[in-house]
Structures are given as C-alpha cells and as structure tokens.
Write a structure and sequence with these properties.
- By secondary structure, this protein is of the alpha/beta class.
- The protein has ten helices and eight strands.
- Helix 3 links the parallel strand 4 and strand 5.
- The protein binds nicotinamide-adenine-dinucleotide (NAD).
- The site of nicotinamide-adenine-dinucleotide has 27 residues, from helix 1, helix 3 and strand 6.
Length: 277
C-alpha cells in the first residue's frame, strides 16, 4: 500500500492504449501506478502521450506514474491489471510470469476483451485472487467497467474491486464469464457488419458512420470506434468470439485483415478507416 494515502498501488501490464488509459484513470485520483511493457518504444510513446495530455488538459499538477521493462518492479503492486495484446498465449505467459514475481496477496485482473476468465485463471498461481476488469477506451473517460468473476474468484476480491472502482468514480456491471461479455458481444458484430458494408461498397466510410450516428443517436460511428479500439484488436476479438461461440456470424470481414497487413491499425498507427495526424 501507498503509506501516505493508503491507496492500493496499481501495476499495469502493457503500455498500449488501455494500459496508459487505465493508469491515467487511477493516477487522476491520486493512486500511484507503474506500467510494464517489454517494448521500450511503447514505454517511451506511452510516457510522451501521457505527459502531453497532462500538459494540455492540466487535469492534475503531477501524477505518480512510472514506466518499466522489468516485471519485478511490480512486486509492490496491490492490484495488477493485465492489458497486453489480445492474444491468448501472450496473456497466459505474462499472467504466469507475473504470478511468480509479485507478492502473494496481490490481486491480478485481466482487461481481456474476449477470452474467458476461467481459461486465463489456469495460468495464475492463485485463481481466488484473479478477476476480469474490463475497462473501455478511453479508460480515463468512460465510466463503465465490466466485472467478471471466475469460478474461483473470492468474494473479498470482488468487494475490493468494487470499492477501488468507486474511488476512481467508475460504475460497474457484473457479467457472467462468457466470450465478449456484454459490450463486445454487441459492439464488435456491429463494427464487423460496418466493415462488410465498406467492403461491399454499400456506402462510404463517412456515410456509414453518419447513418449510425444520426440515425440511431449514437455519439460515435462504428468505423470511428473501430479505429479507436484498434483494427488488430477487433480482429482478435472476432476470431475469439467465432471460435468460442462456434458461430460463423463472428467471422471477421476480410477487409480487417487487409488493413492489418498494411499496418492500418486505427488511431494508434495514424491510419485505419480514417487518417489521423
Ligand atoms: N482498445 C480497446 O478499445 C480496448 C478496450 C477494452 C479492452 N481492451 C483489451 O485491452 C488489451 C490491450 O489493448 P490495447 O488496445 O491497449 O492494445 P495495444 O495494441 O494498444 O497495446 C498492447 C500492448 O501490449 C504490449 N505487449 C504485448 N505483448 C507483451 C508481452 N508479452 N509483455 C509485455 N507487453 C506486451 C505491447 O507492446 C503493447 O504496448 C487487449 O486485451 C484488448 O482486447 C482493448
């Protein structure tokens, strides 16, 4: 625990969009956080983007956030949230590794979009202290978090997570452990369908987003949302839903793979359905 404020120390695995966003969500409320990534470029990029945002928005004077490529630096974390790429083997490996290096009473959560908590729980040393905490992007702005208990998650851990989320002004829903939970089971097929509309030449990217935004009173169009989430992440989620739910309706639109092969991953690579500065 952080002695001055008695707030849990937060560790993040993965310095991508979600690791950085969740770190900001906690740090904005006085928590101390550390982000681990194996890629030093990602660590530098994450630090630069967060420094820029703090300077632009003047949310708080300083935040207590550090970056590391040494997993052992997370050994004092009370809550570790795994946010590495949506690849099953990568998640299993990092969860097993962090279980070995962290203190025994640390709670480990995963921010997976589509894998089962019970499946990932097999990789951690203490499944009773493992839970799904699915934040949305951008995590420091969107109030909702899906909480997913595994078969072995203890009641104390659920209670801890609920109370900790309240401290950063998040609200939550409890979801049964199931691929894609609530949000991605509904949003991702809509994004996939919108990609099929682009692929089939049914409408332009702009018109498809405009139709959904104005026609269904939605703040964001599905293709804008795809760019914000990341085309590679969308593809992995669809792939996982198709396999786990055994339903071809989740098969990814071929256009998504074409974009990934071109390196068009959305906002994070400055090009996806739209182009960014
Ligand atoms: N993007 C979204 O809108 C969103 C929303 C909710 C949940 N998620 C989930 O959050 C997770 C992260 O998504 P993201 O958008 O931040 O992805 P991202 O591509 O922006 O970042 C992933 C990060 O993981 C790091 N990484 C990969 N393998 C690693 C390893 N073995 N060790 C350490 N670091 C490793 C990469 O270097 C990268 O920095 C995924 O599971 C995704 O499904 C994403």
């Amino acid at each position: 625990m952080n002695n001055s404020k008695k707030l849990p120390n937060i560790g993040l695995l993965g310095c991508g969009q979600m690791g950085c966003g969740i770190a900001r969500a906690f740090c904005n409320f006085g928590f101390s956080a550390i982000i681990y990534d194996y890629d030093t470029f990602q660590l530098k990029k994450g630090k630069m983007l967060i420094d820029q945002k703090i300077a632009e928005n003047k949310i708080v004077e300083t935040i207590d956030l550090s970056f590391t490529n040494n997993l052992e630096d997370l050994e004092t974390s009370d809550l570790i949230i795994e946010c590495v790429s949506e690849k099953l083997e990568t998640k299993k490996q990092i969860l097993a590794k962090v279980s070995r290096t962290t203190k025994r009473n640390c709670i480990i959560a995963t921010n997976t979009s589509s894998f089962l908590i019970n499946e990932l729980a097999l990789s951690v040393a203490i499944p009773e202290r493992f839970i799904g905490m699915h934040f949305m992007n951008p995590a420091h702005m969107i109030p909702l978090v899906e909480l997913i208990k595994g078969d072995k998650t203890s009641a104390k851990v659920i209670d801890f997570c609920e109370k900790t989320l309240a401290l950063i002004h998040k609200t939550f829903v409890h979801v049964k452990d199931s691929p894609g939970f609530i949000l991605n089971r509904t949003l991702i097929p809509m994004i996939n369908e919108a990609a099929f509309l682009v692929h089939g030449g049914i409408g332009t990217v702009e018109d498809i987003d405009k139709a959904i935004k104005l026609g269904s009173n939605n703040p964001t169009g599905p293709l804008q949302l795809a760019d914000a989430i990341g085309i590679d992440t969308i593809y992995s989620i669809l792939d996982s839903l198709a396999m786990r739910l055994k339903d071809a309706k989740y098969n990814p639109c071929p256009l998504l793979l074409e974009y990934i092969e071109k390196g068009w991953l959305g906002r994070k690579s400055s090009k996806g359905f739209y182009t960014y500065d």
